[in-house]
Structures are given as C-alpha cells and as structure tokens.
Specification:
Elements: E1 11-12, H1 14-28, E2 32-36, H2 46-51, E3 56-58, H3 63-75, E4 79-85, H4 86-92, H5 94-102, E5 109-113, H6 131-135, E6 142-144, H7 149-161, E7 166-170, E8 175-176, E9 192-195, E10 200-204, H8 208-220, E11 226-230, E12 233-235, H9 239-246, E13 251-258, H10 263-274, E14 279-284, H11 293-299, H12 304-319
Parallel strand pairs: 2-3, 2-4, 4-5, 5-7, 6-7, 10-11, 10-13, 13-14
Antiparallel strand pairs: 1-8, 6-12, 9-11
Helix pairs in contact: 1-7, 3-5, 8-12, 9-10
C-alpha cells in the first residue's frame, strides 16, 4: 500500500467474510463440519446450517463439551470449525483446548467470534482481551487475528488446509478493506508489511491494522516515516519481521487485547533477546469500564491519533541521549 492510497470508506463485518469463505471450503471438502454453542446466528453460520444440516452440530451452551466434541470429530477424520464468542470459547473451555486440542495436536479449527471489546456495553464478562495471551502458551496451536475481509477469507482457507489446530480471531467490529498488491498472499506464520518507513515500526493485528495505517499517514506531515506491519499470525510468530522492526530503533504495538501476553508481549520478548529498543505497547491495561467499543478505543488510545502519539514517544525515546 502506498502513502497516497486512502483506506476504503466502506466498512465490513469480517464474520460475513468468514462465513462465505467457510462455505467455499466446505464445498470442496466434505470433511468440514461446524460445532457451535447456540451461536449459529452470531457466527453468521445460518447459511451453512441450511445447506448442510447433517454437518452442523449444536451442543447448546456447553463450551467444554463443544471443544471435546470437536476433538472427537477430528480424531474421526473430520475437520471441525468450532465457533463461539471468544470470551466463552477460550475461557470456559481452556482446559479442553489445552488437553484435547493442543496437547493431542488435533486437527480442530477454533473460531473465537467477536473478540476484544466487541460486546462493549456488556462489560468485562463479555470482553475477550485475554484470549491470545493464554492461547500463546499452548504449543502446536496456530493463532491468527485477521485485519480485514480479504485476510479473513484467506485465513479460513489456510486454516482448513493446515494440518493441526488453529485459532481464528474473527472480529465483528466493522473495518475497511485494506489496499494490497494483486500478488498479495496470506500465510500462517508470516507478517505483512503494508507500508515502508525508516523512523519507527507500528506492528498491529486485527482491527487495529487499519488504524495503524491512518496513524502512519498522519505522521507524514510531522516528518516521521512509519513502517506498518500487519502481524496477523501470533503463532507461529514472524520473528524476522520483528527483528527488522527493532533495527529501526523504535516500535509501537497495537492490539484490541491486554497489553500483557498478546502481541505486545510477543514482540517485546523477541526484541529483548535481539536488539533492545523503545517499545510502546497500546492495548488494554486490565478489566475495563462498561461502554461501547469506540468509547473504549478512545479512552485507551486505540485511535489513529493515539497510535501516532505513541509513535512520537517511541521515536523521542530512541533519540534521547
């Protein structure tokens, strides 16, 4: 994406792209099934259920059973997409994700719907700002947080083809479609540089990538050239892209997640062992007040202006004697 290309003004719900892409994958591979917890509507899987009722398993509000059923289906040769609100899927069924999926390397695709603060007004019980942190601890589990509809669709296809467990973090927060070269390709474990820059690297994932690009554009007028890196894959992690960012001497990480243990933590771990430099982590500090997603983004600096300010701080810290 060049500096002159503005972001699309049209906004998209990535759950729609997830549903369409999963349908395409299921048409090609009869092994694909879905397992849900009364979450057909919120997962946008009504069309799937209508087309393939015999490939739809609804266990009710029983997330631990849901993951166990998914693991059993994988052991029987199916490719289950286990889809539910991320706050309930990853918290209530963490033991089953650990023991039945990651430990056994089961070919289960976990789909955490509406993560981060998408359920803003419902408060901390429905916020999912810890999911990537505790899932990063599990070996064998790929973790992907797509940035827009195109990447969401590509990530679904990659997950279906991947042999082993995958966690897809699918946002319901509306985002623009990002501009990419026609040659762009998605791969689990590979970062994507959307904008080049020499002064500071902004590393973002999920819905924050578009805002990172807006921040980079705003910084141009102030004489700061920011590289924007889309780190959609948190596991496996593209450590080479992080080391290249550290070589610039200043990094800002941006995520709709806790600043502890998620993208910011992953980047800081690599930087600490390679080339320590100023790293500003933008995210959430802990339990959050009740309010809309936009209110929470504004309050905690997860806006284009907030990201630009953090980039300024990182550059200033790098230049300090």
């Amino acid at each position: 994406m060049s500096a002159a290309e503005p972001l699309s003004s049209q906004l998209f719900d990535c759950r729609d792209a997830f549903a369409v892409s999963l349908d395409r994958a299921a048409e090609r591979d009869h092994r694909i099934v879905i397992v849900v917890n009364d979450s057909v509507g919120s997962s946008k899987l009504g069309g799937f259920r209508k087309r393939w009722p015999d490939r739809t398993i609804n266990v009710g509000i029983a997330e631990q059973n849901m993951v166990g059923v998914g693991s059993g289906l994988a052991n029987g040769g199916k490719i289950p997409f286990v889809s539910a609100a991320s706050c309930f899927l990853t918290a209530r069924a963490l033991e089953q994700i650990k023991a039945d999926v990651a430990y056994t390397n089961a070919n289960v695709k976990l789909v955490g719907q509406s993560p981060g603060v998408a359920y803003g007004e419902l408060g901390p019980t429905h916020h999912s700002i810890e999911d990537m942190a505790w899932l990063r601890l599990l070996p064998n589990l790929a973790i992907v947080a797509p940035s827009d509809p195109w990447e969401t669709a590509e990530a679904v296809q990659a997950a279906a083809a991947h042999e082993g467990p995958v966690f897809l973090r699918i946002s319901r927060f509306a985002v623009p479609k990002l501009s990419r070269a026609e040659s762009a390709r998605f791969a689990i474990g590979r970062a994507e540089t959307l904008r080049e820059g020499k002064d500071v690297a902004i590393i973002a994932c999920g819905v924050m990538v578009a805002r990172a690009l807006e921040a980079a554009e705003a910084l141009v007028g102030a004489g700061v050239e920011a590289r924007v890196v889309n780190m959609a894959s948190l596991a496996p992690l593209d450590e080479a892209a992080i080391r290249a960012a550290a070589d610039l001497g200043a990094i800002v990480t941006v995520e709709e997640h806790s600043i502890r243990g998620g993208l910011g933590g992953a980047v800081a771990e690599v930087v600490a062992g390679y080339r320590p430099c100023p790293v500003r982590r933008l995210g959430f500090p802990g339990f959050l007040p009740t309010g809309s997603a936009e209110f929470l983004f504004e309050r905690f600096g997860l806006t284009a202006s907030g990201i630009a300010a953090a980039a300024w701080e990182a550059v200033a810290a790098r230049r300090a004697p």
